[in-house]
Amino acid sequence: MLTATHLSKSFADLAAIRNVSLTLAAGQIMALVGASGSGKSTLLNIIAGLLDADRGEVRLDGGLVIGPKDVLVAGHPQIRVVPQEYQLMPNISIRENINYALRFYERTYRSARVDELLKLCRLEAVQHHKPREASGGEKQRTAIARAVAEPARVLLLDEPFSHLDLPNRLIIRDLLFELVRQQIGDQPPPACLFVTHDATDALSIADQIGIIQQGQLKQIGTPREVYFSPKTTYAARMTGPVNVFRGKHLSVLGLPPTHPSEAFIGLRPEHISLADDGPVAGTVQAVFFQGRQSELDVRVSRYVSVRLLTERDDVQVGDQVRIHLNGNRLMSIG
Ligand SMILES: Nc1ncnc2c1ncn2[C@@H]1O[C@H](COP(=O)(O)OP(=O)(O)OP(=O)(O)O)[C@@H](O)[C@H]1O
C-alpha cells in the first residue's frame, strides 16, 4: 500500500503541491488528471522519492519513502518511474537497455526474463534496434519493460500516452492493464500511478481518478464517479466533453427549474438526443463526424447552444432539429 499524506511543495513563492493525500493499493491503477502546470510531475517526483516535499510524507507498506536530500542515491528501490522522455541509453539496443536493468542477475535468468519482457511489451521484432531507430511507442514500451524488469511495488508513469498515436495508446493501455495483474513469484502485483492531461485513456483503465488543479487534489473517485458526478466545472471538462449552463437556462432547454438561476449545471453530450417529438427546437451549427457517431452543436436560443451525440449520419449544418435532454443526468458542478 502506497500512502501520501498532506504533501506540500513550493518553488519560491509558487505553491506547486498543496496538501495532497492519496492511497493506492497493490494491483490498482490510479490516474492523476490535470491541466499543464497543475503540479502532476512534481507530485509524481515526490512520491518517487526524487524530490523532497516541504511538508507531508510518503510511505510504502508503512516504510517511509525518503527524499533525495537524506539519501546517497535518489529514489526508492521498489518504486519505478517511467519518465516522460523515456531516458533510454542511446548507444545500446532495446534488448540491452532492458537487460541493463537486470545486470546483477545470473545470465540464464536474465536472458529468459528479457525474452519474457520483450514478448509482453511487443518488442521482439525491434529488440536489436537502437532507441533512435525505434518509434515513440516502442521507446515508451522499452522504458516500461525496463522499469518492471525487476519486481516492483509501484510503477509511476509521467504522461505515458501523450506522444503516441491511437494504436500505440491502446497497446500501452492494455500493457498497463496486464502489468498490474501480473504476479512474479509470491510478490503482490505492482500498484500503478500515472499522470496525464488527457483523461480518455485514464477513464478506460484506471480504478481511481484524481483531479488535480493548481496543486490541489480536488476530487478522487472511480472513473464513473468523476465522469458522471464531477464536483467542479474543471473536473467535468478535464474528464470529457460537457455542456455547462446556468440554472436560469433550464426552462429554454425544456427542463423544470430545479436549480438556482446562477448555479452551474453540467450535462454530457450523450445525455442529449435528437428526438422528433423532443420538447426543444434548435438549429444545427456544426457536425463533427467521429466514426460510430457524430457530435452536433445545436443552437436552441440566442444565448444557449448544446453539444449532443447522435448515431444519425443524415444531419447537416443548418438543419432544424428537435432535441431531448435527460434531466435525470444533470450534474451540479458549483
Ligand atoms: N524545479 C522547479 N523550479 C521552479 N518551478 C517549478 C519547478 N518544477 C515545477 N515548477 C513549477 O511548478 C508548477 C507545477 O509544475 P509541474 O511540472 O509539476 O506541472 P505539470 O502538471 O506536470 O505540468 P505539465 O503537464 O506541463 O508537465 C509549474 O508552475 C511549474 O512551472
From TrEMBL:
InterPro entries xrefs: AAA+_ATPase, ABC_SmlMolc_Importer, ABC_transporter-like_ATP-bd, Mo/tungstate-bd_C_term_dom, P-loop_NTPase, Transp-assoc_OB_typ2
Gene3D superfamilies (alphabetical): P-loop containing nucleotide triphosphate hydrolases
Domain (ABC transporter): residue spans on this chain: 2-239
Matching SMART domains: AAA
GO MF terms, alphabetically ordered: ATP binding
Pfam families assigned to the protein according to its UniProt record, in alphabetical order: ABC_tran, TOBE_2
UniProt keyword list: ATP-binding, Nucleotide-binding, Transport
Phylogenetic classification of the source organism: Bacteria, Pseudomonadati, Bacteroidota, Cytophagia, Cytophagales
Descriptive protein name: ABC transporter ATP-binding protein
